[in-house]
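Run log, item B.
One chain of 694 residues. Sequence copied directly from the ordering sheet:
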Amino acid sequence: MPTDPVCGMFVDEHSAELKLIRDNRTYYFCNATCMATFADPERQLREVRNKLLVAWPLSVAILLLTYLFSIPDWPFIALPLATVVQFYSGWSYYHGTWDAIKSRIANMDVLIAVGTTVAYAYSVAALLLPQALPQVFYFDASALIVTLILTGSYLEHLTRDRARDALRELRALLPSTASVLREGRETEIPIADVAVDDTFVVRPGGRIPADGALVEGRTAVNEALVTGESLPVDKGPGDKVIAGTVNGPGRIVVRATQVGEDTVLSQIGGLLSEAEMGQVPIQQLADRIAAVFTPVVLTIALLAGLGWYAFGHAPFNVALLVFVTVAITACPCAFGLATPAAIVMGTGRAAKDGILFKGRDAIEKASRVDLVLTDKTGTLTRGHPELTDLIPASGTDVRRLLETAAALESASEHPLARAVVARARNEHVDVPKITDVVAEPGQGLRGTVGGRAVSVVSGTALPRAALEGAALASAADRLSGEGKAWSAVLEGTRPIGLLGFFDDPAPGVPEAVAALERDGVSVVMLTGDTDKAARRVASRVGIREFHAALTPARKLEYLRARQAEGKRVAFVGDGINDAPSLMAADVGIAIGAGADVAKEAGGVILMRSDFRGVALSLRLARRTVRKVRLNLFWALGYNTVLLPIAAGILVPFLGFGIYGFLPMVGALAMGLSSTSVMMNSFSLRWVSLSGTPA
């Protein structure tokens, strides 16, 4: 059964009349106020503030009339003031009660409306029927209860508004209109009307309204939003651009390839919204409590009032106050908000560093990780290796070796392949055409160039004997000794040369590894590279355990073996050869996803190629789940302690006089209880790697 995203109360989706669709998801609400808050939080905040501007002066005036000024017939003056507070400032609680009745659910509005109405109605009846009822008036209680609860609601709105900063900032990144080319002329249309294959113009400094491919012009685009790269990225015809990123100095024409909910920006927003609705196992208990909480509280309130009246010799008006106090002290929202309050704040904080949790249980799974397995190339290293060595075999020159290697590698997106192609481009080598390309994961590529069968084979997958005849073995040993990755280029089965590569560790990796270790998470590197290359990188980044020369299948085998030992394993990779391990891990962490936020593999997506995101994502997950538990403990403790007090457990010691102030204290506590849950979660905004361990 779904829950109201604002107050956390259960809603029956079959009978619910109040629902709203956002980011391709349907949300259900227990009352119109919650729906209005979700749809337009700024407007709802203004409305609550306006009601408070009326409620507080009138409530203070009623208090002064009741306790300070000796004005004859003061209840007749207090009556209209209390009526305004009850039916203007407190009208939303009646509206919410009516919505609850129609939807056959019992929300917090029912408790507030029933409790305050009983106090108000008794006071009116006592004023109009002086011969029938004791002349005790509770206009101060009814007005102050409404005012205090509204105050708590206002503070909760403020905190919630800050919690949703990440989503609001994302939505603000898109322009409201786009300059679309129609019949050769520019036409300004709303962004919602942009369709796939439309061509639109983006002027210098403008934000790009949809994902697309550049068809005219050259520019540099600031993509820090997606990749975290602070320097603008050069773009020319054929290059992809992303909605929400900022165009540089050139006027460009772009063909839309993804619009609306399909854009990268919308996918990010969708993942944030999905994570916001996530659950953790402990929340299931809170959900069961919240589902029956309001009817149980009203029953307790009624029994407490009747019990003190029938058996405790309480006056009728005091028995009513017992009922009112129990009703307005209870707070079911604290249970409902325990999970979403923490998750909204945690996911919003993560999004600011390009970290996305994918799936309803991603945060809970990430919070339990105690072992991180990580790839090396492109994960611990910069991912931009350089081709440092071209070593031809006897009878082959360097240019021919580079031509053959570049022809093969032009068909691959592997970082080593890109290094070969970049070297060929820099040296103005004419790259021949390749056909019949076959990729062999963990080994290399093979294909046909100019009628010749050629291949590039990783040094870890090539038999040593194949190099002896080509007199390349000593060169291979030298490259391995220098900690460099290397591959052999073959024609048929004959090696024609070696390629040597070097990739520096990425900035921040040692800091991230140290943070993971402080948090009690072990880090193990798994790589297909040589032992010496792996050892060199591991020593520089502070990883104590590594395993080299592993194929993707062997990485998967190692991962499953550690899971069998009871480890909760996260696997970190770039997804090129790591999809099986990303899928098999308890948590797959896809690093450097950039625009590819829709990856199937990966419960955690790091938009930036920064290993610090791994440590921060796991720390945030642990802190978020800890906040959920603390929120639930607070909600349970609050209601467990205060409800017996409201029902009269202290009366044998302090007498019925405590009900002169208990209703107001209960209202204040109820008004602040949900705010306390939000404020407890708010501290997640300041989680960082430099802080205390998680």
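Observations after the first pass:
- The chain has four domains: 19-166+278-345+623-686, 175-266, 355-381+506-607, 386-502.
- The chain has a mean pLDDT of 87.
Flagged for discussion on Thursday.
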